[in-house]
């Protein structure tokens, strides 16, 4: 697995090191945190969309489940590390409940998954559950507030997620996933247990999003259901992944750095034009580069990590 | 004289219904190791359904399929693959974004229950060595059909189900494909061939089963089949009989 180790050393480790060191150079840690968060979410989206072809529009459901899993545990006085485990457990549990959605395909899957995320949001935001979730009134985790530690946890999670993508791209399991993405019927003939393979990829991406949600909850410590289940989190993760190029390690990373960079830059410099420019950019890319920026190279037969 | 070995594949009274339509209506057949059996018949007579049912893609509604002394109906294709049953598809189904070599690599690593063949040798023997690094989606239709076969062979099958592999091949490719299948059978593989091209069937098969409306109406050599009254009626229509 020489190629995998090279990608790990030349791409994943430097990204992690830069992200971990960045707060010493740049003061807006929340902005840096959001970059790290979106790289993680885009790579988590990549694991399911890039390798199996399922596009989960309700991806934010796992993120919100993780955020609230962390919050409920932390409010009960659990140590943040254990609360993160609860966040991951919430994501896996939701993923298991939603595995029947994998029987659907294409737009049906995307819509059903979106509806599922909305359902979780409505449950969490329900005032009747206020004793547990604080309902629509939002949670405050000032007791465990630790911006530095939560930032480093997010960086570690980003590194682990990117390492998982390296494994998928270079390992036997990822190859089986890509085969079933291309043609599930002949993948089964070729010996791939398609139900099991899909479920593993699905739970992996659910775990990533829910841990990211947990780190997010820890970082910002005061939030509302609308924040943790904000649809634009799904949209961003999808757009960044598609823009850079799904199924690769670099694609989602480049997608986040460029698009989220542009997003923040336009949002500050010319906020009145932000949605126009951002929307036009996405339309142009989808029309002319449907497989993302990396396809500029892959079309020429160059392998992009 | 030593007794004949039992057939590798035994199909008894196989029934497959789609709604009220009986695509297979009590089909029986035997296939021994090293034997090539052709399945011929008009469109809709149940040939592909037979392959799909034996291959685990569709569940039979009745009957028994025994492979290597073991009943197999209901097993999913990935399990059958590891037991040594594999197939090609009527219209090829490559993993389009993977390279040709990765296509066969998936099958060798995931679907082989014994020792997989050497993949480079396999690709070379099928004339695909030069394409190994190309994405399978870029191959032409004949090459994709050959890749379907390569992928099936990468699992080292003992029973190979071939669904209209010859259609769309030019005469030279047809001849080569026929020789390949014969060579595989000579090394002990059992092969079930569904095909419309009678020249190909004659060249490849040891015997044929003629199907009509989900049943076998004739079993024997192709040369005898064309003299059989029932077969003539099915292929040419009742008025032409005699």
What does it look like?
The complex is a heterodimer of chains A (305) and B (242). In chain A, 49% of the residues are buried. Chain A has a single domain, classed as Orthogonal Bundle (ABC transporter involved in vitamin B12 uptake, BtuC), CATH 1.10.3470. Chain A starts with a helix and ends in a 7-residue tail after the last helix. Chain A is 74% helix and 1% strand. In chain A, strands 1-2 form a two-stranded antiparallel ribbon. Chain A is mostly helical. Chain A contains 15 helices and two strands. In chain A, helix 2 (29-52) packs antiparallel against helix 10 (194-220) and helix 7 (147-170) runs antiparallel to helix 10. Chain B has 242 residues and is an alpha/beta fold. Among the domains of chain B are: 74-206, Rossmann fold (3-Layer(aba) Sandwich); 208-242, no CATH class. Chain B contains nine helices and ten strands. In chain B, the strands form two sheets. Chain B has a six-stranded mixed sheet, sandwiched between helices. Chain B has a four-stranded antiparallel sheet with strand order 2-1-4-5, covered by helices on one side. In chain B, helix 6 links the parallel strand 7 and strand 8 (190-194). In chain B, helix 3 packs parallel to helix 5 (141-153). The longest helix of chain B has 16 residues, at 171-186. Chain B is globular. Chain B starts with 8 loop residues before the first strand and ends in a 6-residue tail after the last helix. The model of chain B has no long low-confidence stretch (mean pLDDT 92). Classes of the chains: A mainly alpha (305), B alpha/beta (242).
List the helices and strands and how they pair.
The complex is a heterodimer of chains A (305) and B (242).
Chain A (H helix, E strand, L loop, with lengths): L1 H20 L7 H24 L7 H16 L4 H19 L7 H19 L5 H4 L5 E2 L6 H24 L1 H11 L1 H6 L4 H27 L1 E2 L1 H4 L2 H14 L5 H20 L4 H15 L6 H4 L7
Antiparallel strand pairs in A: 1-2
Helix pairs in contact in A: 1-7, 2-7, 2-10, 2-12, 2-13, 3-4, 3-5, 3-10, 4-10, 7-8, 7-10, 8-10, 12-13
Chain B lengths: L8 E10 L2 E11 L4 E5 L6 H8 L7 E6 L2 E2 L5 H7 L1 E3 L12 H11 L8 H7 L15 H13 L5 E5 L7 H16 L3 E5 L3 H7 L2 E6 L2 E6 L1 H4 L3 H8 L6
Parallel strand pairs in B: 3-8, 3-9, 6-7, 7-8
Antiparallel strand pairs in B: 1-2, 1-4, 4-5, 9-10
Helix pairs in contact in B: 3-5
GO molecular function, one term (chain B): ATP hydrolysis activity
Protein name (chain B): ABC transporter
Pfam family, one (chain B): ABC_tran
């Amino acid at each position: 697995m020489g190629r995998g180790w090279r990608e790990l050393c030349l791409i994943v480790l430097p990204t992690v090191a830069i992200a971990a060191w960045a707060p010493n150079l740049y003061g807006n840690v929340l902005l840096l945190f959001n970059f790290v968060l979106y790289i993680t979410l885009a790579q988590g989206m990549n694991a399911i969309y890039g390798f199996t072809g399922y596009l989960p529009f309700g991806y934010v459901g796992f993120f919100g489940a993780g955020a609230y899993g962390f919050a409920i545990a932390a409010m009960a006085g659990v140590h943040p590390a254990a609360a993160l485990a609860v966040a991951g457990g919430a994501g896996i549990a939701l993923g298991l409940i939603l595995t029947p959605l994998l029987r659907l395909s294409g737009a049906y899957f995307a819509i059903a998954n979106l509806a599922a995320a909305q359902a979780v949001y409505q449950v969490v935001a329900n005032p009747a559950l206020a004793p547990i979730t604080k309902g629509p009134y939002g949670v405050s985790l000032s007791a465990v507030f630790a911006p530095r530690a939560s930032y480093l946890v997010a960086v570690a999670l980003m590194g682990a997620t990117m390492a998982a993508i390296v494994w998928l791209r270079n390992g036997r399991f990822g190859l089986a996933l890509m085969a079933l993405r291309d043609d599930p019927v002949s993948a089964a003939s070729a010996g791939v247990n398609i139900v099991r393979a899909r479920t593993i990829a699905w739970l992996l991406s659910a775990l990533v999003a829910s841990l990211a949600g947990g780190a997010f909850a820890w970082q910002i410590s005061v939030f509302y259901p609308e924040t943790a289940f904000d649809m634009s989190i799904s949209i961003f993760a999808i757009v960044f992944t598609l823009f850079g190029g799904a199924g690769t390690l670099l694609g989602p990373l480049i997608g986040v750095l460029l698009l989220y960079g542009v997003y923040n830059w336009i949002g500050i410099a010319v906020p009145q034009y932000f949605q126009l420019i951002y929307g036009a950019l996405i339309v142009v890319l989808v029309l002319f580069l449907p497989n993302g920026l990396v396809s500029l190279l892959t079309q020429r037969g160059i392998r992009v990590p | 004289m030593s007794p004949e070995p039992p057939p590798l594949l035994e199909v008894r009274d196989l029934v497959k219904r789609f709604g009220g339509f009986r695509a297979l209506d009590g089909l029986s057949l035997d296939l021994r190791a090293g034997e090539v059996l052709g399945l011929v018949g008009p469109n809709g007579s149940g040939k592909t359904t037979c392959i799909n049912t034996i291959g685990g893609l569709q569940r039979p509604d009745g009957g028994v399929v025994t492979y290597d002394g073991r009943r197999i109906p209901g097993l999913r294709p990935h399990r059958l693959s590891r037991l040594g049953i594999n197939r090609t598809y009527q219209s090829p189904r490559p993993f389009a974004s993977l390279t040709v070599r990765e296509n066969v690599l998936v099958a060798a690593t995931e679907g082989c229950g014994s020792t997989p063949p050497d993949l480079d040798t396999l690709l070379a023997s099928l004339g695909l060595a030069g394409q190994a690094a190309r994405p399978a989606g870029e191959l032409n239709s004949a090459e994709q059909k050959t890749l379907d076969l390569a992928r099936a062979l990468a699992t080292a099958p003992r029973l190979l189900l071939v669904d209209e592999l010859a259609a769309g091949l030019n005469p030279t490719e047809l001849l080569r494909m026929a020789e390949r299948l014969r060579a595989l059978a000579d090394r002990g593989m059992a092969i079930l061939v569904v095909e419309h091209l009678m020249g190909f069937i004659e060249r490849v098969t040891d015997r044929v089963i003629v199907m009509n409306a989900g049943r076998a109406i004739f079993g024997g050599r192709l040369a005898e089949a064309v003299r059989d009254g029932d077969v003539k009626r099915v292929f040419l229509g009742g008025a032409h009989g005699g």
